[in-house]
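Help: why these numbers?

___
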Amino acid sequence: MRKKFLTIFIFLFLAFSFQVNALAQLNKKTKSPVAKQKTANQKYVLTADDKAFLEDLERRAFRYFREHSDADTGLTLDRAQTNGDAPKPGENHFQIASIASTGFALTSYCIAAERNWITAEQARTRARNTLDFFANRAFHKNGWFYHWLDQRSGERRWHSEVSSIDTALLLGGVLSVRQCFSGDKEIVRLATKIYERVDFPWMLNSDEYLLSHGWRPENGFIKNRWHDYSEQMILYLLGIGSPTHPISWQSWYALKRDWVTYKNYKYLAAVSPLFIHQFSHAWVDFRDKRERFSNFDVDYFQNSVAATYAQRQFTIDVLSREFPLYSANIWGLTASDYVGGYIAWGAPPRHEATDGSVVPCAAAGSLMLAPEITLPALKEMKARYGDKIYGRYGFADAFNPHTGWVNRDVIGIDVGITLLSAENLRSESVWRWFMQNAEIRAALSRVQIR
């Protein structure tokens, strides 16, 4: 009997040893610096200095939405100057509002109320007025809104398109306030009306799965479709989860998947600006979830972590040779202004227009994803260049430490992603509010992300 027991014990021990060794070999093959730094369920512990820095940064960011959102329409300016001035009459951006900026503004009222920067009633009033405009007064085409509007009148500006992605970012704010202020029946009613009116199948424009970028009254649908990995994940989830006008869950898996590899970092990306890895994540909580359908298997949270790490590492390895002031804590490229205008740049690979500029919201938008590398970067930018680049609304949209150029403007969506990402790092509140919407949970369930 003892001999038999010993034989079984030896067999089990060898089997266990083999399994442990196999797992070790697998981990050795697949591990990356990202995996060594953190996993999604490891919460970054903020120091007192971190909290003070983020509190100041967020309050300045919220100031932008408080000062540049119209009291009647709720529409938020696309941009303003770092000193607080709005674009003046005769300037190209005079009274130009962005519905995407307005989506960030709506969410900012939730943050401000929870942190007592304004009273709860002030926040609800702002949210209610904004929702009333979109529910009852703004032009819409089957529930979709124009990208650019006159802040005061709400009329279409710049011959802009009825935009699918910008409507989706607006809805991020609409559904956030619906939950944050769920005790206000009028806010809930208006928010629900706005969302449930959106006709997602119409935006397919006869395609079975892929949504169009938008529509113009002059020439109809834009030919380009959201067909690969980009910032539009929230758009598809809103459509798949719609209780009134849904699209097929298979739309999620119709998207083309292009992988980028830089050293040990591998991640999905259609283009290189970091905002594509941040905007949907500002509202949708992808932490500790992955696809469970067929042979698809992507962890979208870790995907964005890897993209953030890859850009920083590429800056250290490659770009710093050309631009010596780039470093482990001075880095960041995403769609922004630069000395030549507005540009959608990023890394890797090296964008042809790279000129040594730094876009602080590239790191700031990833605070919720990789705080261990983004928070030190922002703090060093402020410490070294803060007298020139850190002002009324936080960081200027972009600056070039190699030439001394500093952008005179901030851009609403860049201020917005800074605020929401920082708040998710601190409290996870934006994720909490948005994920309370049953439609989003249903959409994730339908595409088997859990």
